[in-house]
Amino acid sequence: MPLTALQINILDTAIGAYAFPATYYDFAANAPVHAVNMAVVEVAIRRMLTSANPTDAKYGLANVLYWGYAQIGFGPTRVNRFLENVTPAQIIGYQALVIAHPVPNLTQLRSLRMPQYSGISFLSKVLTFLDPAQYCVLDLQLAKLPNGFGARALHELVSSTTIPVTQTNQVVYNLWRAECVDISNTYFNGRYRAVDVERGFFHLIQTGNLAVAQQIYAFA
């Protein structure tokens, strides 16, 4: 069944209320940047991720980690591990992927074996910063969405303490991001990007409204 007017309004409100820290790190100045909104963060990180300069590309990948761990105290540790262990060959390989495929797939990114980028949670964040209109995050919070109802992609997701990159999960991820685009087109006249819809679900989950998010996801 389609969403009710109330459910549409709840998701719409959640999209607008998304409040994950709008922050990234300026490695040249050795200082955090607290942006006015996520749009500024998206532009800054995407510019780094798509830079022809290997150092900038490396800092872009480090910033995906920095932003993703912004709510968790051990974020700087993960960033430092990445910077200390990533190799020039891995960065060059990443840049080659982005040149050949403006948005690579999860399997291609995983094949680089970059430190701190083993699972879909953070690999999907890279794709999202590259193209937020068509891509979105899939992490363990969002993996809570399926409740057994509706023909939904995430019912087929295979996860435990991580979401590994497998052939099945690659397919599930592509269907999940397509679902987010479809929800925007069906209920919001396409004014939201895939990432905006995902962030609405994420906000509902983080604010203790998992059951509401599950119902909306099941019937959207």
Looking at this protein, list some descriptive labels:
two-stranded antiparallel sheet; 2 domains; 220 residues; single chain
Précis, in short:
This protein has ten helices and two strands; from the N terminus they run αββααααααααα. The protein is mainly alpha-helical and 220 residues long.
Helix segment tally: 10
The percent of residues in helical segments reads 55-70%
The main sheet orders its strands as 1-2
Q: What is the string of helix and strand elements?
A: HEEHHHHHHHHH
Global structural class? mainly alpha
What is the CA–CA distance across the termini? 8 Å
Strand content: under 5%
Mean residue pLDDT: 96
Q: Ranges with pLDDT <50 over ≥5 residues?
A: none
Q: Strand count, sense and closure of the main sheet? A: 2 strands, antiparallel
Envelope shape: globular
Radius of gyration: 17 Å
Give the oligomeric state of the chains in this entry, treating copies of one chain as homo and distinct chains as hetero: single chain
* Count of the domains: 2
- Total strand count, please? 2
Tell me what the structure shows.
By secondary structure, the protein is mostly helical. It has two domains: 5-18 and 136-219, no CATH class; 23-118, no CATH class. It is 56% helix and 4% strand. The chain contains ten helices and two strands, in the order H-E-E-H-H-H-H-H-H-H-H-H. The protein has helices spanning 5-17, 38-49, 54-68, 75-85, 88-100, 106-110, 120-130, 167-187, 194-206, 210-219; strands at 23-26, 31-34. Strands 1-2 form a two-stranded antiparallel sheet. A hairpin with a 4-residue loop joins strand 1 and strand 2 (31-34). The chain starts with a helix and ends with a helix.
